[in-house]
Amino acid sequence: MEESPKGEKRCAAIVLAAGQGKRMQSQIPKQYLLIGDKPVIYYALKTFQDSFIQEIILVTAKDDMEYCRKNVVEKYNFSKVSNIVAGGKERYHSVYEGIKAVNCDYIFIHDGARPFVTVEMLERAYICVAQYDACVIGMPAKDTVKIADSKGFAASTPNRDAVWTIQTPQVFSYELIRKAYSLLIRKEQELLEKSIKITDDAMVVETFLGQQVKLIEGNYSNIKITTPEDLQIAGVLLQEDGK
Question: What is the pTM of this model?
Answer without folding.
Answer: 0.92
